[in-house]
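Subject: Protein record for review, amino acid sequence with backbone structure tokens
Why sent: The fold of this protein is of interest and is recorded here as tokens.
Notation: Tokens come from a learned vocabulary of local backbone shapes, not from coordinates.
Attached in line: The record itself begins immediately under this heading.
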Amino acid sequence: MSDTRGEKPSDRGEKLCVLIPCLNEQGLVRRTVKEVLQHAATISVQVEVVMIDDGSTDGTRAVMQELCEEDSRCRLIAHDVNRGLGRCVTEAYETIEDDSWVTVFPGDSEFVFAESIDNLLAARHGQDVVLGYLYNPVVRKLSRRIASTGFLKLTKTLYGFRWRSLNGMKLYRASAFKGIHVESGGHAYVAELLAKAQLRRPDLRIAEAPYISRGRAIGDSHAIKPMAVIRAVRETYKGAKDVGKYREKMVRRYHEEQEGGEQPESFFPPPTRD
């Protein structure tokens, strides 16, 4: 496991924006944000925490407002109506500088921030995107592991992806995904977003690194409920259908650039680090 905790803050001015989307996480969001801020002083990038209240009906927004008053590194994006995970995250990209690093850290405090972000940051050099894969899957219930495995196999079949995981913690430049519209909702948006990003930039550099989960402290994941599974499959197909349209558009662009004498993007995989 990589470790960057011994590094001193860098003078290079790299920034990390931690997006924390929440829906009715009143009991956990303070703990989640404090976990991020506590580790922020030990890593080699400047950290900003962007909390997203996606239409919560409990006291989540009030807690977020308190956190903004307590620490200038925090800011709040509030939605009065639930927009869904994909939309609220991708819309937040427009408020972030292009060269800033971004990670999404769930407000339910399931992931271990310190070790996970250290691993992702250590793998970022020479990359545009670092996809996280779960280092300790045993922490999750069997039913959730089965559902996750099935969802990943479906996604890989539809998109041809080779990575070990898509919906875990990840790190990426804001510019990699900014400006891309997604049709799918829920966790299905990640695969659609990544596919369109690759089509837009065939030379997108993607690496992998482990992240760690402590399991859910309160309640169970909604992802394994029958209706949630049906919705996930439906949204995945919706995203894949729109990616098909986007693929046709980008292929036409590639050929038009070639016919116009422009230098097309490279279709060869970019070099990887040893």
User: Anything to note?
Assistant: Residues 158 and 240 are 7 Å apart (CA to CA).
